[in-house]
Design goal:
This protein is of the alpha/beta class. About 45% of the residues lie in helices and about 15% in strands. It is built from 19 helices and 16 strands. The protein has helices at about 15-25, 35-45, 65-75, 90-95, 110-125, 145-155, 170-180, 205-210, 225-230, 245-255, 280-285, 295-300, 315-330, 340-350, 355-370, 375-380, 410-430, 435-440, 445-455; strands at about 5-10, 30-35, 50-55, 55-60, 60, 80-85, 100-105, 160-165, 190-195, 235, 260, 270, 275-280, 300-305, 335-340, 375. The strands form five sheets. A five-stranded parallel sheet has the order 2-1-3-6-7, with helices on both faces.
Length: about 450
């Protein structure tokens, strides 16, 4: 039988200590209680605990001091802080100092049990770290990436809200997924939400859910993003795009840990960790009145800056190798390699679109190269090129003799795919489906044609 997990309880009120001891004992845990900071530090010096629960206000100091001490003395021990109701600033300070989480007085037993289970799960994950190979990984060994990885591992051990800042295409969602995967919620849902892609009139329903019949078209009950992420992580991408009215409602749900579906009289408790990201400068938006300062304060407890690709150019060869392997696998084709000149050209390139731009450049180059070797010319770094990889689409005749016109309800990406399909099918028909001849007619390599046929689903 495994050893009982041991929890240190620090509180000067005997009735609170008794409540915590009874609750944890019923959870099968061993506890040790002390009434003050000095006694807590003495016990921490003597032995390791699986979890520490401490009141914020102690007779001889604060829980914040104990959090700081544990960060240095026992960094693998999660510590949760018990705060007076309404002491949100102190709670946030404790999270910034490294606390795992906080719970407000009067202590809700269900909330306490959830917190304890999550914290102890974090301890088990730390013990099993070598076997935890499922976390997505940001590729790169540059100093900037090593620093970021260190921060990711640290914040993954907490429940603190994390704000991820970075230019478009740097991989902010990948950072969020890695934080989730390395944390105690890794077995629960990760729900990514693009805040800029939701129509304002649907936002409340999408975030909080609705009841059947609550509005026209609500034919059944629907859970919102918060309920979908319950027990796990809610990732708010492009959070700067939220309208002010929604920011107010979001703040309340984050603080109260409750949501009210549209059409319901009852609030629903939710337990989610909030991660958020944007490529915009939120501080400037707060200053201009376009983003609420209180919401910014609440989601920006811990700040992570994702470096631009030009700030970690030494990672580019490693990134290229991984991306080219992934492209080849996705199309069941042999992988290609960069020649020395092409690799150096990429290292020297500025990449305003960051990793996303690198992926697009390599995917296009992969379809253009000969003999599985990508040269500088295949990269087309200094050329104006269309997103369909070099086939001219302007004024392209359709098979019915007319000209393709983009329907008003079709986005550009879908339109370009339709144009590409039309061009490829026309070339195949004109060559009686001789693929080698069709590739020559289109002015692309046979590999590029195979790639397009697979992408377009043309047999």
């Amino acid at each position: 039988m495994a050893d009982q997990q041991r929890v240190l309880i620090v509180d000067d009120e005997p009735d609170i200590r008794e409540l915590l001891e009874l609750t944890l004992m019923r959870m099968g845990l061993d506890t040790l209680s002390v009434p003050d900071l000095k006694s807590a530090i003495r016990q921490v010096d003597k032995e390791a605990f699986d979890l520490c629960l401490t009141d914020m206000r102690l007779p001889d100091g604060t829980g914040l001091e104990l959090v700081t001490y544990l960060q240095h003395k026992r960094p693998d021990t999660p510590v949760a802080v018990i705060t007076a109701y309404g002491s949100m600033e102190l709670a946030i300070e404790s999270l910034k100092a490294g606390a795992f989480d906080f719970v407000s007085k009067p202590v809700e037993i269900d909330r306490l049990r959830t917190l304890v289970n999550q914290a102890l799960n974090m301890t088990r994950l730390a013990a099993d770290a070598p076997e935890n190979g499922k976390a997505p990984v940001m590729i790169g060994d540059s100093p900037a990436m090593q620093q970021l990885q260190g921060k990711i591992r640290k914040v993954a051990r907490s429940q603190a809200p994390v704000f991820i800042q970075g230019e478009s295409g740097t991989g902010k969602e990948l950072v969020a997924r890695q934080i989730h995967a390395l944390g105690p919620r890794s077995q629960a849902p990760f729900v990514p939400v693009n805040c800029g892609a939701i129509p304002s009139e649907l936002m409340e329903s999408e975030f909080f859910g609705h009841r059947k019949g609550s509005f026209t078209g609500a034919s059944e009950d629907k859970a919102g993003f918060f309920q979908a992420a319950n027990g796990g992580t809610l990732f708010l991408d492009e959070v700067a795009d939220l309208p002010l009215a929604m920011q107010v409602k979001l703040l309340r749900s984050i603080q109260e840990k409750k949501v009210r579906p549209i059409g319901s009289q009852q609030e629903v408790s939710v337990d989610v960790r909030i991660l958020s990201a944007t490529h915009k400068n939120l501080e400037n938006l707060v200053a201009s009145g376009d983003f609420r300062q209180d919401l910014f304060y609440r989601i920006n407890v811990i700040n992570l800056e994702v470096p631009a690709l030009r700030e970690r150019a030494s990672d580019i060869p490693q990134l290229c190798e991984r991306i080219l392997i992934r492209i080849a696998e996705s199309y069941d084709l042999p992988p290609a390699r960069l020649d020395r000149g092409a690799e150096q050209a990429l290292v020297d390139y500025n990449f305003p679109g960051n990793v996303r731009e690198l992926e697009n450049i390599l995917e296009r180059a992969y379809t253009l190269c000969e003999n599985d070797r990508i040269g500088i010319r295949d990269l087309q770094l200094n050329e104006q090129h269309s997103t369909n990889g070099g086939i001219s689409i302007q004024g392209t005749p359709s098979s019915n003799g007319g000209s393709l016109v983009r329907p008003v309800d079709m986005n550009l990406e879908d339109y370009l795919l339709e144009v590409e399909r039309e061009v490829v099918e026309q070339a195949l028909e004109e060559t009686r489906w001789n693929r080698t001849a069709a590739a020559k007619k289109l002015g692309i390599t046979f590999r590029a044609l195979r790639y397009r046929l697979k992408k377009l689903g043309i047999d």
